[in-house]
Write a structure and sequence with these properties.
Strand order of the largest sheet: 8-7-6-9-10-11-12
Order of helices and strands: EHHEHEHEHEHHEHEHEHEHEHEHEHE
Radius of gyration: 22 Å
Number of domains: 2
Structural class: alpha/beta
CATH class of the largest domain: Alpha Beta
CATH architecture of the largest domain: 3-Layer(aba) Sandwich
Largest sheet: 7 strands, parallel
Number of helices: 14
Helix content: 25-40%
CATH topology of the largest domain: Rossmann fold
Strand content: 15-25%
Distance between the termini: 39 Å
Length: 331
């Protein structure tokens, strides 16, 4: 049986990260494919004209009408990374091209990173570490000592990452509160979480973790007054997108309230402007957008893209489809 023709459309530097030697070998058993990413030039039109399957990832081109016109036989795009918001256009739906994303595989390391940070925050780890370094004195004296037993943890948005974090939190003795306007009280109870308003979540929880997608409706969703509601010694964690938070308002409150902490893996501008207080405030812990897939973790995304291709070739529905119905709600 003749294998369908395929290509890799992905930036060269990301190709070996997502599709390593084992993944490439497996793909070769499924499709007739060249050994590396195709460069989109006029000379590539002959190859594009017969391609049916695309394996992609970070650095993919925008699939607009002009590009799709060069690929009349295209049936499926398997994206070995997270969001496809910047590369998918309505032309895809008009052609009924199947698109899948490896967002679930990319959600796993984010959930792991978040869970680790929640544990550290509940134990007041950063406060102890910063106090020890500043005073050069061995001391366990904090106004609010670290303890996660019986604490309340707030999760903002119960998408893939939020749900994975909740699963991990159930392994420790904490109460989980959640804010998600799209999830019913019954759905949350089934997950073992308590449905609350955003204001209640900030006021009640020792740790608040943000997992909302960046949408027009969520820009600057978290305002300065939310941070003013935080309990003494509480911590805010953001591994979602910086633009969901009014960053200036947040920093102003953090200046006023040295007792609360912000652990930020994302910022509105990446990197932030030189001289920003986000670099210097002692109650801000900043990491350079590292929660998602890195190193060997990226191969997990490539493997999921391969699984989706296998299902497609066997006539089975995709596990993680991107379609007109869910596209606008995705991160």
């Amino acid at each position: 049986m003749k294998r369908p023709e395929g290509i890799y459309l992905i930036k060269d530097k990301f190709f070996p990260l997502i599709y390593g030697p084992e993944e490439q070998a497996l793909i070769r058993t499924l499709v007739d494919i060249a050994p590396g990413p195709l460069q989109l030039t006029e000379a590539s039109d002959a190859r594009l004209s017969s391609v049916e399957i695309i394996f992609s990832g970070w650095g993919a081109p925008v699939f607009d009408q002009a590009l799709l016109d060069r690929m009349p036989s295209l049936k499926a795009i398997f994206y070995g990374a997270g969001t496809v918001k910047k590369i998918i256009t309505d032309c895809i739906w008009e052609r009924s091209i199947i698109v899948t994303s490896a967002y679930y595989a990319n959600a796993i390391p984010v959930a792991e990173f978040t869970f680790a940070q929640i544990i550290l925050a509940l134990k007041s780890t950063w406060q102890y570490a910063l106090k020890l370094k500043a005073e050069q004195r061995w001391s366990q004296d904090l106004a609010i000592p670290g303890c996660f037993h019986g604490s309340k943890v707030g999760i903002i948005a119960l998408g893939t990452i939020g749900r994975l974090v909740c699963e991990r939190l159930r392994s420790i003795e904490v109460e989980i509160l959640a804010y998600d306007p799209y999830a019913s009280k019954a759905q949350m109870e089934e997950m073992g979480v308590r449905k609350v308003s955003l204001e209640e979540l900030f006021a009640e929880c020792e740790v608040i973790s943000l997992h909302a997608p960046k949408l027009d409706s969520t820009l600057n969703m978290i305002q300065d007054f939310h941070f003013r509601l935080m309990a003494p010694g509480a911590t805010f964690i953001n591994t979602a997108r910086g633009a969901i938070v009014d960053e200036v308002g947040m920093l102003n409150v953090l200046k006023e309230r040295p007792d609360i902490m912000a652990i930020l893996d994302v910022t509105t501008l990446e990197p932030p402007e030189p001289g920003s207080a986000i670099f210097t405030l002692p109650n801000v812990i900043l990491t350079p957008h590292i929660a998602g897939s890195m190193g060997r973790e990226c191969r997990r995304m490539g493997r999921l893209a391969i699984t989706e291709c296998q299902r497609f070739l066997q006539g089975e529905p995709p596990l993680y489809p991107v379609n007109l119905e869910n596209f606008h709600l995705m991160a």
